[in-house]
Design a protein that fits this description.
It is a single chain. This protein is an alpha/beta fold and 221 residues long. 42% of the residues lie in helices and 15% in strands. It has ten helices and eight strands. The protein has an eight-stranded parallel beta sheet with strand order 7-6-5-4-3-2-1-8. β5, α7 and β6 form a beta-alpha-beta unit. The radius of gyration is 17 Å and the shape is globular. The chain starts with a helix and ends in a 9-residue tail after the last helix. Bound molecules: pyridoxal-5'-phosphate (PLP).
């Protein structure tokens, strides 16, 4: 079973670098997967999931939560500021805080609700023009703005490395940025590189296709 195999590989990767068991959490990325596959993973006892679109999550998770009230869903894709309130209804964590306008909207909404999801700042370590995320040169200032100006607790940093580069370089860079800002959370590593991410300190790995099988090509990425 794919879930079990991934759980075992995570455990082995933790042992290899003397990390405590369970210190790298597995986010099962269920975007674009048929509901039967998601139900199957829920039945096996897994409770932490990732989605990259607010709309898709809204059509899927409220119903699953009825049967599995202890489920946690993390948003790992871009968040438009006009969807902040909806996102706070749907997600226990947001991994893609990446601009001041969004930080401000989040702060206002969090204040009204009286509770805050776990927040990660996405960093565009590869400085790719098409990719979301704060640039490395701006990350320290942006974290400071989130924390000091908007009173948002930032749990950690998140990265999606460039596809054609060695991910470990980007994981190491993200870890260094987190350390110098006093942050513990590191959301990094996907199906093809989660073991390397764990070796470099990942606290959350986001694994989709290796658990659920390939996504339908072209539908979403
Ligand atoms: C889709 C996605 C993943 C999972 O990718 P796989 O290669 O299927 O493991 C991880 N992180 C983000 C941000 C994603 O959008």
């Amino acid at each position: 079973m794919a879930l079990l195999e991934i759980q075992q590989r995570i455990a082995a990767a933790e042992v290899k670098v003397n990390r405590p068991a369970g210190s790298a959490q597995l986010i099962a990325v269920s975007k674009v997967q048929p509901n039967e596959r998601v139900a199957d993973v829920l039945e096996q006892g897994h409770r932490l999931f990732g989605e990259n679109r607010v709309q898709e999550a809204a059509g899927k998770w409220p119903e699953f939560r009825i049967g599995y009230p202890d489920v946690q869903v993390h948003l790992i894709g871009p968040l438009q500021s006009n969807k902040v309130n909806q996102a706070l209804e749907l997600f226990e964590a947001i991994h893609t805080v990446d601009r001041e306008k969004l930080a401000k909207k989040l702060a206002d909404a969090v204040q009204k609700r009286g509770s805050c999801p776990e927040l990660f700042v996405q960093v565009n370590t590869g400085e790719e023009p098409q990719k979301a995320g704060v640039l490395p040169s701006e990350v320290d200032g942006f974290i400071k703005t989130c924390v000091e100006t908007y009173d948002l607790p930032i749990a950690g940093l998140m990265v999606i490395p460039p596809v054609d580069e060695e991910p470990s370089l980007h994981f190491a860079l993200l870890s260094k940025m987190a350390k110098r800002n006093g942050l513990d959370g590191l959301s990094m590593g996907m199906s093809s590189d989660f073991e390397r991410a764990i070796a470099l300190g990942a606290t959350h790995v986001r694994v989709g296709s290796a658990i659920f099988g390939e996504r339908v090509a072209g539908v979403n990425k």
